[in-house]
Amino acid sequence: MPSHADAPQAAPPTVRPRADATTAERFARSAAALEPAAPVAAAPDVPAWLGRRRRAHDFRVERIPLADLEDWTFAPTTGNLGHHSGKFFTVEGLDVTAVDDGGHHHWQQPIIRQPEVGILGILVKEFDGVLHFLMQAKMEPGNPNLVQLSPTVQATRSNYTRAHRGAAVKYIEYFTRPGRGRVLADVLQSEHGSWFFRKSNRNMIVEAAGDVPLLEDFRWLTLGQLAALLHQDNVVNMDARTVLSCIPLPDTDGRAHLSDTDLLSWFTEERARHTVSATRIPLANVSGWKRGPYAVEHEDGRYFKAVGVSVRAGNREVTGWTQPLFEPVEPGVVAFLTRTFDGVPHVLAHARVEGGFLDAVELGPTVQYTPANYTHLPARRWPPFLQHVLTAPPEAVRYEAVHSEEGGRFLNAESRYLLVEADESVAPLTPPPGYQWVTPGQLTSLVRHGHYVNVQARTLLACLGAMRTAR
Amino acid sequence: MPSHADAPQAAPPTVRPRADATTAERFARSAAALEPAAPVAAAPDVPAWLGRRRRAHDFRVERIPLADLEDWTFAPTTGNLGHHSGKFFTVEGLDVTAVDDGGHHHWQQPIIRQPEVGILGILVKEFDGVLHFLMQAKMEPGNPNLVQLSPTVQATRSNYTRAHRGAAVKYIEYFTRPGRGRVLADVLQSEHGSWFFRKSNRNMIVEAAGDVPLLEDFRWLTLGQLAALLHQDNVVNMDARTVLSCIPLPDTDGRAHLSDTDLLSWFTEERARHTVSATRIPLANVSGWKRGPYAVEHEDGRYFKAVGVSVRAGNREVTGWTQPLFEPVEPGVVAFLTRTFDGVPHVLAHARVEGGFLDAVELGPTVQYTPANYTHLPARRWPPFLQHVLTAPPEAVRYEAVHSEEGGRFLNAESRYLLVEADESVAPLTPPPGYQWVTPGQLTSLVRHGHYVNVQARTLLACLGAMRTAR
User: Where is this region: Disordered (chains A, B) (predicted)?
Assistant: First the structure.
């Protein structure tokens, strides 16, 4: 079947339908395909393949004292940690005041500042009529197992415009040059608002025009295969998960507890009733945090640390480097409570304030916490729904896997991701303020736009999307 | 015909259709109604009625020296201008660095900071099966003719939560209390990014449940009547225009030059290629601006001034007040170039950077400039398309009216708003970088969400919307 790029060059039409109904169906077909098409090289056992790539490169990551970071220094006056080139990112301080109907919250914390917008892009291509996703076995120093399945491209703008030295980014031309492919999704999405200051990346899915060379460390996989891999721990990296959440899957039902207008109105009220003022301050001035030889950390040992690592690859020309990473002190738990109303599955979204969000509030999972911060307290003082998630009986757990966050910035940042079935006694149809029932189809509509769905909820949306289309 | 609120109280359904197809059609029906329905009090000649209200209240606005502003002072260290209560707004400084592929731009300017989100709300109600809009004759001191047609409600959060003294906001309960009405549109929209620091207001349209008392200074008008009034100078105020732009009118065609996916991708690239850093600085430190007895103004007399006014009403218990306003030095010109491709009307949108935008870039009109800043230069150095708009032959002008911006903050901030038909020689199908052809239907989809369409483009969208449905 020739792709559109192989067709004779007729004058393009000046107008076309605004919506392409076939795209959603094509993704659904890929989700139903549990094996790659015949023209694609036999798919390896992906986790085993990732392990082989890790051993082949002989990657080694070691913790080092902050003073041993090469070309990274704490600025004398501000104490901000940055690279001498001014590139990459800085670790600075943030002062946050959040006001809502319930009161006034104020805190200070270290935060990563990286104003550049990067590209997280997956190249797709039809083989035998089924879309396949070009995925990469990529090492990131913060990943617990170093090598995970990544998007085709994961690059900062300096990276791919070659503003600083470094090898060319493979396949980048499909995402930057018109005519090399057809865009199926392209949206700026926020990253972790508790660790990044207003960071967003461009999440892209591009369908290749013409043949695509298959390079080492890359494989074509169907969405059905990716869905299966999302059930395994630490296989699909965060960047891949967020891009997968942007797939425009069909909403076969078209019904929901709230109409789209009512959902947007609820969200508007949530955003309007929170006034968040977040101001960058010098890292040296962040109260309650201290700088030691190995870490910038909280005085009570809570939340996270900024640490240093050195990265080496044993077997080839890759130059090693050192860099800071944020390391959470304890693992997290991230969960949507789910219910089915009149045959339509819903998840319970939480309008969350995170200090680093550009626009104050985004929709997060029902539960997104570090349990260790609460388990010493009586359960009545835990955040809403956390106890139910931690004590859910196995038969209520519809999905569970451990995933880690972006390994280029976060060290061993693992969370247990869950979908937990609830009932009226736990999670009523009329939920508490700040929570609302939404369908996966509604979340899929919202992620066409930025500023709506946070990165943890997008990981769960990727899992939901694969599950609901594969049924 | 009973409204839904009059129906017997059955248990509400747990799910409903995500989209309500009838809402768009109901607004279209109102646009086609050029007279109010019989049950509504005879519509006055609106401009004459506005004039009568102005004379009845005997409003008087006078310029005063900045030193005569009561309870407003310049802070000793920063020079910021603020109210002693800490309420209302402040005039501060802004330092902006904008970087794109074309280079590096840096400037400083005064800016209005008002972190609170207000409500701009229009109450609608069906009479004889036609939606009518409850509009207010409202005085704002900066309006050239003082009294214009405003939304039902125009209130800051402090206003309507009664955080500070002041009369209750009329009809506010329809916008803040569930059950008093049904939300038809509700979205946070940006205001002027060149004059406000990250200001947004909630734009709401609510359909009233049950009878609505008609208070003095309010009238029910059809969308068709409002469309006619939008063709008159200085009748429909900015707040009303932006709310009217959020009406979910039907897209009867469903085709466009770019698919929605391609349009969002183009916009994402525009936002990604601009890095804008906007930092608040003390007003006293803004370079190139000076403070005199009557104004904070640019040293070369360009752009705008911050001035003081006193406001008095002669005939009743309204207490007078004084306040600062921003006054543009020269009138503006705001225009969309329009073309029809294959029978589908399009406008040429411009991805604009304004220093006060929360997210760097929004879609603006093709032209949004103060001509006086350029007319001393040779035409080749004018901004793109400005010359064509200023010299367009009368037969190419499809719409023209003078409108003023928010009269509570801006004094005599008039612009000539135009829709100007263009052709391939002036505005090619493949426009210059930063410009793109979009349909009014696509803009209507985008204004369901914030951060996409700037306030000047929304005024033109309101005009377009009324024109296209009334055809």
Answer: 1-22
Q: Is the pLDDT of residue A28 over 80?
A: yes
Is B188 within 8 Å of A262 when comparing Cβ atoms?
Answer: no
Residue B82 reports pLDDT greater than 70:
yes
Residue B1 is assigned to a structural domain of this protein: no
Say if CB B265 and CB A183 are below 8 A apart. Answer: yes
Q: Do B261 and A344 touch (CB under 8 A)?
A: no
**Average pLDDT value for residue range B320-349:** 97
pTM: 0.95
Q: How confident is the model at residue B162 (pLDDT cuts 50, 70, 90)?
A: low
Task: Give the number of other Cβ atoms within 10 Å of residue A327's Cβ.
Answer: 18
User: Using one digit for the tens of pLDDT, what is the confidence trace for B405-415?
Assistant: 999 999 999 99
What stretch of H or E contains B51?
helix B46-57
Q: Judge whether B464 lies within some domain.
A: yes
Give a yes or no: residue A6 inside a domain. Answer: no
Chain A contact for B18 (CB, 8 A cutoff): yes
Q: Is A12 on the interface with B (CB under 8 A)?
A: no
pLDDT, tens only, B44-62: 799 999 999 999 888 999 9
Q: Return the beta strands (E) in B147-232 as ranges.
A: 147-150, 153-155, 181-190, 200-208, 218-222
Q: Which domain holds residue B376?
A: 20-471
Q: Which chain A residues are within 8 Å of B187, Cβ to Cβ?
A: 264, 268
* Ranges A19-23, A146-150, B440-444: which has the least confidence: A19-23
The one-letter amino acid code at A409 reads R
pLDDT at B163 over 70: no
A163 part of contact set with chain B, CB < 8 Å: no
How many distinct structural domains can be found in chain B?
1
Pairing of strands B130-139, B147-150: antiparallel
Which of B188, B271, B344 lies nearest to residue A272, judging by beta carbons? B188
Do B137 and B147 form a contact (C-beta atoms < 8 A)?
Answer: yes
A71: region left, alpha or beta (phi > 0 left; psi from -120 to 50 alpha): left
Q: What share of chain A is helix, strand, coil (3-state, %, to 5)?
A: 25, 35, 40
Q: How many of the other CB atoms lie within 10 Å of CB of A134?
A: 24
Task: Report the distance separating Cα B365 and Cα B361, nearest Å.
Answer: 13
CA dihedral B39, B41, B43, B46 (to 10 degrees): -140
Closest CA to B352 of B455, B421, B232, B462: B455
Share of chain A above pLDDT 70, in %: 94
pLDDT (0 to 100) of residue B6: 47
Distance, CA of B249 to CA of B381 (rounded, Å): 39
Question: Could you tell me if residue A5 is inside a domain?
Answer: no
Decide if pLDDT at B471 tops 60. Answer: no
pLDDT, tens digit (0-9, with 9 covering 90-100), for A96-107: 999 988 789 999
The residue in chain A having the minimum alpha-carbon distance to the alpha carbon of residue B265 is A186
